[in-house]
Amino acid sequence: MTTLDEKILDYLTGALDPEQVAEVEALIAADPALEAEVTFHRQILNAGENLPTEEPPLELSAGLMDAAVDAIHSSKTRSRKPDSIWEKLFITFTQPALVGSMAVIMVAVVSVGLYQALNMEPGSKDVQGGGPSTAMVEKAEAIPPSEATVATAADEIVGTKDDAVALMAEANEEAPASREETTLKQKVQAAPVDSEPNEGTRRVRARRPSSRPARASARKPSASPAPVASASPPRPKPAPGTSGTESGLGSRGSGVGGGGIEPTGALARSRASSSYGRGEARRAPTAPAPAAMEATEAPEADEARGTRADEDDVERLLYASRQLGRFRILRRARQKAAEDLPDAGSSIVAPWERDLLRLIQNKRSAQAVKIAKAYRANQPELLKEALFIYLYAEALFGSGQVDQAQSMALSIKGHALYGEVVNMLLEAIDEGQ
Amino acid sequence: MKPTDEELMKRFQSGDARAFRQLLGRHERRVYNFFLRSFGKKEVAQDLTQDTFLRIVKGKASYQRKAKFTTWMWRIAHNLRVDTYRREKFRKHDSLDQPIGQADEKRTKLDMVEDSKEIGAERHAHGGRFVEALAKVLPELDEDQREVFLLRQMEGLSFQEIAEIQDININTVKSRMRYALQKLREMLQDFAPGTDPN
Question: What residues of chain B lie within 8 A of the CB of A262, using their CB?
């Protein structure tokens, strides 16, 4: 084992001052063995500077840009100043503390009023006068309202406000999604062909007429009749003519408040990777024009096949968007699980969860089914995990095994945490059928 | 004149998504390759790169311009790396991820260690192959030493910056670098001048 002199290493890593450098260089010059040693170490350091690097996948950037745009959008929504005096008044009167105080006062007044009405003799002066007398008010102030009544009323008011905030957040998210859906077809028509050999590229390349015949013939029969010939992997089809908006994509799929940014974990990852369609669409303007790309193809064949390809891509993106919607809800459920059961390790993403999410979102559903089976064989206890069953069902659905997917999903229908997303999956399965 | 990272971050803070795109363009590849060299798996590198930038997005309001953007970014990356190692360490079941990945993702850390044993067969093949050999033995380094080596050599950060990122004394950083070099020297012994190729 070679023990290196500390000073030599400091010299090599540039950690010495000029005087010390001169001193070390003199030493090196006087000792050929040391010189060879220093040269070799320098070679290692140089190699470290020249380690080969790789390009990150394109969908990663697309997902991150989506997150950044969402963050800007949500922060603008939160920080927007009220325009009118009515808005200012509304905001003032919807402050939690104020709402709580008002609730207490209202409940107190109502309680006192009821109390008075029940205890007041008919025809008494106070009642006949049409309003509370000073004595009544004094009496009312002296009577404390029931604590439970106040708490319930306050909870109701706060709950209503939260619901409103959530609805507003949903509406804010819904708008871009709806716009996106309505212009989706146009975007797909102008879609790019990337030069990077990654998942995103493969998806885009599926549109190229030259690769269509082989891919179309290789397609497996799906449980649901396909409206058009497809070059994509087998997957459930939306009902013909169903748009994203019509199918509830915006309302159901974007139901996450707070701008949709996630800090960490596979569920956060799911968002970015499952938003590939949006990312690709956004990259469209910078990509080569499809006309130039397919210049060598016969124009009439292009036209016919191009239409099918467009429909195909729209369909695929719609499916991905719906799935994204489900996974957003799933993410919320997972967050809740992590908050409720922090000690149970629910915030830690298990390998099977990460693997299945990744495969499903990368449209490798058949592979996801395979790996789910492997996990099930390896860890039979997973069949008691609702999340595992849900992801298994999602994988089965994605790979066209609709009946199995449905029976899997039905087995966890009504689950406390994942019930909502399971219902959405079942609806999607019904639509597919 | 190109805007600095700090200027871009300020623009992003005030709602300019294009500024974030520029930041992403400058640093995404670097962060991705840092994680790729740290863990040897594309999938993990992709996830952690994403988490790093999502944290930047989420924490944009807390970023103060007086801090250097890259130091802030690498600190986030460092924390994620440490958390991930910790989690991997306590994981009960091994991931079945490896056998199902794409062809180039099938390799495991074990494979890389095995490869490093075969490096002797490639001895004295300098230049590009020396770099390849270094890449293969890097996973064998202690994680903290490897991080110092990568940040210093791949990213060109100063020892002071690395000390801030890792929140440790600068002398500890230098010490880690020394140990890293020393270990690499041992692992790449076959490439040393004067070594008999046979």
Answer: 54
All domains in chain B, ordered by first residue: 1-96 (1.10.1740.10)
Would you give the end-to-end CA distance of chain B in angstroms?
A: 55
* A115-140 per-residue burial string, b: 16 or more CB within 10 A, e: under 16: ebeeeeeeeeeebeeeebeeebeeeb
Nearest 5°: phi and psi at B55?
Answer: -65, -35
Asked if the C-beta of A382 comes within 8 angstroms of chain B's C-beta atoms, the answer is no
B53 vs A265 pLDDT, higher one:
B53
d(CA B149, CA B34) in angstroms, rounded, equals: 11
Choosing among A44, A276, A335, which should be mutated to test the B contact, i.e. which has the most B CBs within 10 A? A44
Residue keyed to tokens 């659905």: A397
N-term to C-term CA, chain A: 69
CA angle in degrees (0–180, nearest 5) for A247-A336-B57:
80
Q: Two tokens at A428?
A: 């999607």
Q: What is the pTM of this model?
A: 0.44
pLDDT in tens, B36-90: 999 888 888 998 999 999 999 888 888 887 789 999 999 999 999 999 888 776 5
- Ranges of each domain in chain A: 6-49, 59-85+187-349, 363-433
Tell me the DSSP string of A131-162.
S--HHHHHHHHHSPPPHHHHHHHHHHHHHHHH
Instruction: Tell me which residue has tokens 């239409």.
Output: A307
**For residue A36, is pLDDT > 50?**
yes
Q: Which residue has the higher pLDDT, B1 or B196?
A: B1
